[in-house]
Amino acid sequence: MRLATLGEIRHSLVYREIIDCMRDALIAHSRGECKTPMPMHLDIAAGCAEVHMKSSYRQGGPYFALKIAGTFPGNTARGLSTSSGMMLLSSAETGEPVAFLADSGHLTDVRTSAVAAMTARELGRADSTLGILGTGVQARLQAAMHAEVLPLRRIVLWGRNSERAAECRRDVASLLPGVEITVVRTPGEAARESRLLVTATPSREPLLFARDLQAGTHISAVGADSPHKQELDPGILHRAALLLADSLRQCEKLGELQYAPAEWSRVLEMGAFCEHPPAWDRSGITVCDFTGLGVEDLYIAEYCLRSLR
User: What is the architecture of the domain spanning 123-292?
Assistant: First the structure.
């Protein structure tokens, strides 16, 4: 069995290749080529922590994957990363373990940001300004991934904690020298400053409302990935000219769509959009609801193993 450390894993990743890899993963999902059960979630109340377990198998593929990824907010005070996790690839023929990727949740973070950047590219966005709600690991990766597909000149950041927002600003500035980084005071201000938004927070109540958004705004909502999480007011989904989801089945249970059942019938899965994009009102709002799929974990784990070899 191949054992890969976090350092080896980081060194093996090429962001542009992963963006393409995630497109393949979502297309395979929408075609029904993968067996991807609903995620398992564990809430660990004592530490306000949560753990997600996801898996997938591509029909005819050599491996199946099991991923465990957790968020432990209390680790900040311990001087540790708030993310933890691992991925296991096993042989689909014998069931024997093939690779253990001790990634501390990094591959989950990377594939999440890659899918959002891929969506911006597939929508034909050419924004020079990106708005990000959230100041954690995901904010930093979203900035880096979107810079791979867009001519970014400015990033607008919002976070609840001013000190963390300032730290995130410094980190993003070092990642993307030459890009202006602005911290704003409210989510609404971020929406007024940018027509391309990523929401990446653990919020349990809406941060953005339809009244906040400019015409032609796109939102990639990645924070709501379990029951009771919410970043968008349902009025935004109702108003959207194009409503996308990584998985309709998951988003109905775990994403923003859990609060907007009246909109389910018009949702298009992102993989289907990639293959056959419909016409839509380009001056309207577009939203993609992301809950994170086991098939994405399978594809990035396979990619990582190929790169390590």
Answer: 3-Layer(aba) Sandwich (3.40)
Q: Strand, helix or coil at 237? A: helix
Residue 120, both tokens: 């911006």
Q: Where exactly are the structural domains of the chain?
A: 2-107+295-308, 123-292
Q: Which CATH superfamily is domain 2-107+295-308 in?
A: ornithine cyclodeaminase, domain 1 (3.30.1780.10)
Neighbours of 10 (CB within 10 A): 13
The C-alpha atoms of residue 44 and residue 70 are separated, in whole angstroms, by 10
DSSP E strands, 159-274: 180-183, 196-199, 204-208, 218-221, 230-232, 242-245, 268-269
Taking the C-alpha atoms of residue 288 and residue 231, their distance in angstroms, rounded to an integer, is 12
pLDDT, position 125: 97
Give the pLDDT band (50/70/90) at residue 45: confident
pTM here is 0.95
**Strand 2-4 relative to strand 286-289: parallel, antiparallel, unpaired?**
unpaired
Handedness of CA 298, 303, 307, 309 (dihedral sign): positive
Please provide the DSSP assignment of 238-262 as one string. Answer: HH-SEEEES-HHHHHHHSGGGG-GG
**C-alpha angle with apex 89: 88 to 94, nearest 5 degrees?**
125
